[in-house]
């Protein structure tokens, strides 16, 4: 029975780290997306030089 609980604990740990990694990547991707939108918006708002 001990090996079963160890397997469940390892599975839970793997699942947790997978979710944490996916959340971190989504957060980083969202931040890059927002930064790109802000840069693009500011470039379109900039007045053209004569």
Helix vs. strand class = mainly alpha
Q: Helical proportion?
A: over 70%
| Number of beta-strand segments | 0
Biggest β-sheet, characterized?
none
Poorly predicted sequence stretches spanning 5 or more consecutive residues? none
**Bulk shape:** rod-shaped
Rg from C-alpha positions?
22 Å
- The span between the termini is 79 Å
- What percent strand? under 5%
Pattern of helices and strands: H
Counting DSSP H or I runs of 4 or more residues, the number of helices is: 1
Mean pLDDT: 90
Summarize the structure.
By secondary structure, the chain is an all-alpha fold. It is 88% helix and 0% strand.
Q: What would you note in describing this structure?
A:
The protein has one helix spanning 2-45. With 50 residues, the chain is mainly α. The longest helix has 44 residues, at 2-45. The chain is rod-shaped, with a radius of gyration of 22 Å. It starts with a helix and ends in a 5-residue tail after the last helix.
Question: What is the element layout, followed by pairings?
Answer:
Elements: H1 2-45
Keywords:
50 residues, 1 helix, rod-shaped, single chain, 0% strand
């Amino acid at each position: 029975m001990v090996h079963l609980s160890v397997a469940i604990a390892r599975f839970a740990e793997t699942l947790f780290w997978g979710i944490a990694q996916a959340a971190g990547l989504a957060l980083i991707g969202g931040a890059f997306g927002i930064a790109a939108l802000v840069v693009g918006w500011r470039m379109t708002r900039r007045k053209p030089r004569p």
